Amino acid sequence: MPLLVVAAGGLLPLQPALAQVKVPITNSKAKSLWEKAQQQVKDREFNKAIETLSTLNQKFPSMGEPFLLKGQLYKAMGDTRSAFEAYREGVEKTAFDPGRMNDYFTLGELAMSFGEYQPALDAYQKYLKVAPKGQRYIPKAQQQVANCEFALKALQNPVGKAPERLGAPLNTFRFQYFPAVTADNRFLVYTARKTGESDEDIVISRIEKDGSFGDPQLISSAINSQFNEGAGSISGDGKTLVFASCDRPGAVGNCDLYISRRTGNSWSKPRNLGRNVNSVAWDSQPTLSADGRTLYFTSDRRGGVGLEDIYVTTLQEDGTWAVARNLGAPVNTAGKDMAPFIHASGSTLYYVSDGMVGMGGLDVYKANISAGKFGNPENLGYPLNTFENEASLFISSDNRRGFCARTRPAEAAVAERDRPVELFGFEVPAAVRSSEQSTYTQGRVFDAVTKKPLQADVQLYDLKTDEMVQAVMSDPESGDYTVVLNEGHQYGMYAVADKYLMRSLNFDYSDKRSFDPLTLDIYLEPVRAGRAIVLNNLFFDSKEYALKPNSRTELNRLIKFMSQYPDVQVEISGHTDDVGTDDDNMVLSKNRAKSVYTYLVEHKVKAERLRFRGYGESKPLAPNDSDEHRQQNRRIELRIL
């Protein structure tokens, strides 16, 4: 039974458990000081009681009860460090006793709050030995024992180096958190708050080529307002921003998610994501996939697995967001599961949770994603996880640089909610990296005739699975686009705009060692007679003309094109390099073109709209003087008749 409890009105004395126990004190001096301290507690003279108990500690250091009473007083007054030290002394100096059950649990909680894992472990184990069956704190103590055992091992086996506080010009606010970086590592976006009373704003800092940061600026007056704009996430191309905002007019709940899109250098007015995503409860902490089409977030809405859960929604073809669904197990637990971050590769979800074994409080975990299913979460270990509650984490697309937010260590005169929160950076150790490494290609889309920037859909397909894995739109003003590519995959990328021939590109990273960012401008040809494109995602074995299975994405795109423009007639032409005889190359090129023709006809494209022809080696795109050039010359083209 505790000596004191803290109520809304302050400290309220109870009939102290220690005062009820007749402590066998034979020394008259000690007895007098003990009784004096108890009377001071009763009279609410807590500081004087602590002074009296300190005198008892000095003169009679073997007595444990005065330490325990002092520890309870310190705890009730908010001085948890002094409370921990006093409790530890008191428990050490008193005999093991079932009557000390609450003292053991309290010592465990205090020790855990300072990362004192061995004292915490000892205290929780003592509590579990004496706690009667059904006692309400048994499950908590059992989890804390597992946490202590995990943490003691983790401290002996650190994973990488400890994050380092980022210097000026960052961390100039009292609070900054939820860092996010664009896929090209050019911009850092985060939430900032000047004081505990001021509202949250979203700021942006340019990352220079040497890795340094520019002065943080408010991201846009169209986004930041008199309301809180916090916990933001930006898409890989830096064109879509989703953030949480509370108490806005017309909101669904007390805190909702809003979306804004950038055209050129201007952000649109934020729009509430609506009832398919938001609830009447608290919805916050969003994270966007690289293409901005999948959104994970945290909510404490009813019907969840635990206290706070992670949900997901996807952007539909009609521009609406699907009804958000709970990720369920194994990601969500009975505890708090919060602050999700989906890596640019889409292969790994990071988040914080207190519902699994860890270092205590909220730890960061990662769950790998394969075929749409989440693997069992893995604790990221020490030093990314500590005894403190961890906040959001972000890892760059190339798995090299990480960012997180951390609360400054406790200070005696600073309340918990006023402790500054700062941004940290770290080199990502191998065990923490996402399951797939990413790079990106970016550039601009132009009209091939006018050379003016063009708005186009840029879509990325995994050629092995024929699955569209990303879809972005080039900027209508600048034409710029950014697409994320993962190592270990062969991709077909398509740039498509109305009344233009599609542009077909290939990226084969299935076994390449070189995995660097690419800059690639795309020029789209208008759908006019005489205009032609190379079909870069049609594949044949050497000297063969049967289409390989990974050609179906390109073939299906051709069918879609022919359906979209029903009056267009085309020639499918085959071309080879100069290896082999002229006659053999002519036959091979014709047969390859015929294979494409046959596939289209078999899939209901009218034969009278198509013709095929082989040109052999007669129309090279480049000199046949290298393997790379010969590969360019081996091709299938589509020409408008």
Automatic annotation (TrEMBL):
Organism: Hymenobacter jeollabukensis
SUPFAM superfamilies listed in its UniProt record: DPP6 N-terminal domain-like (SSF82171), OmpA-like (SSF103088), TPR-like (SSF48452)
Domain OmpA-like per the UniProt entry, residue ranges: 527-641
Entries under Gene3D superfamilies matching the protein: OmpA-like domain, Tetratricopeptide repeat domain, TolB, C-terminal domain
TPR repeat start and end residues: 101-134
GO terms for cellular component: cell outer membrane
Ranges that cross the membrane: none
Signal peptide: 1-19
Pfam families: OmpA (PF00691), PD40 (PF07676), TPR_8 (PF13181)
Highest taxon of source: Bacteria
Localization: Cell outer membrane
Keywords, in A-Z order: Cell outer membrane, Membrane, Signal, TPR repeat
Record carries keyword Signal: yes
Protein name as catalogued: OmpA-like domain-containing protein
Keyword Calcium: no
